[in-house]
Amino acid sequence: MQKSRRRAAASAAVVLASALALSACSAGAPEPAPLEPVAGGTLVYASGDAEPDCLDPHVGGNYPQALLASQFLETLYTKDQDGEVVPWLASGADVSDDGTTITLHLRDGIEFTDGAPFDAEAVKANIEHVLDPATTSSTGYLAMQKVASMEVVDAATLRLDLSAPDAALFESFTQPWNAMMSPAGLERSQEENCAAPIGTGPFVVEDWQRQDAVTLVRNENYTVPNPAATADPEHTGAAYLEGIEWRFVPESATRYSALQGGTVDMIDNAQPDTIASAAESADIEHLDAPRPGASNRIELNSSKAPFDDARVREAFVRAVDVDSAVDSLFFGSAERSYSPLSSVEPMGYADESLFARDPEEAARLLDEAGWRETDDAGYRVKDGERLSVHLPVSTNQSVPAEQSLFEQLQATAKESGIEVTTELLDLGSWYGALGEHDYDLVSAPYTKVGPDVLRILFHSDSTVPAPSGYFANHAMVREAAIDAALEEAASADDPEVRAALYAEVQAKVLEGYYILPLYDQQNHFLYRAGLHGVGETTAVATPVFHNAWLAD
User: What is the pLDDT of residue 399?
Assistant: First the structure.
């Protein structure tokens, strides 16, 4: 889990104050007592992410849902302060020798906020809900596909029978897209459950004014299921905050201005220039929480021309200048990646040598692939067709700095005779373009705990849409060797074997130039100094506010 980072201005006044403080300490003055949490108040959070269509994260399964759902829903497992997967609503599990039977043990005494017990029947109902095609799940469904059947042994015990061993299942249990909701809530219409899911978490959905805000109120009966996994094991009861007002504020400048003015307490989707500016303020702090799973990357659609030719894929990668764009646009807030996986994933594999800019090599490869002529605009031509590739861009998922990066890549690709046309789309239209395969290049973030995200992104099966209509293998990778390695890794219980297999998969993906890695999925939060206890995040790097409190 990520820790908050205080960014203080290095002004002469601060330096002088520090010197005086040191002098006082050396003279035997007592150190100031740590601040004590204060109960009460409403945290105002301003989100730049697209407003979810549904607050139930089983439906679809995107990151804005996870941000919100982390406040009122809980998961069977979580990650502790050391990054280890540990039980949360569950108390533990037994795994059969062949890995195909999981017996889940659940904690006693937990209730949903409607009074229903959290028990084996409830867990069974939730997993069935995720896997039901009518739910139209994508992220949760893809993580739970191997659950073939379930049997309630008793109120505190549920047996899962899997179609094949799944070494990533407990990682999947940590994700908000597989969180637990009241069975009575799930029995309502999807519209009703989308408006106000019923969970076990520290807050409750009270109201949702669409295109404005979601109001959350404190769950007065809340008890932390596993205090040892939290940043403050002594705080086991209800949240300090009375509630959270979760506003939707698309404009970055408006969000930051509201934070500076004190009308909001925390913002997400902080832009690189804003982060740099905030670093000079003693009144604003920064939480940098890279997401697990995949790196942010551009995927090249290998299922159709021109990127069905590996030489053209490599030529594009060699032609564009990613490093200069990252350096000039991100103000040190992003570090270039050369891996399919996020930097927080221990099994990530990188090969920087594959991605050095080399326009001469790009020219040689394009010549070899038959793109030898140029038109009046300087673009390569073959059989009378211009070498042109289409990049639809989600304005809800690509921050302005990233959109500027795409423009710089467009300019450097042109120098090698490759035309890149970009199209700015809202989230729904962007999903539609992907569903119609109306893209040659795409930047599609995907968050999943653990290296099993490679299966979601690069297995041949992932070219087939989930019930939601979404498919994640946008590079359209269909290689038998990659499939075999991914399947073996999913069944391996030896971490070293898994790591070797995942490294093999990543090497093949990189060497095939199916993707162009960029950087970690950007996940920056800024908050005012009067807000405390917000350095703790879930397994998918969403902030949680059970321990948060307002000093003023």
Answer: 85
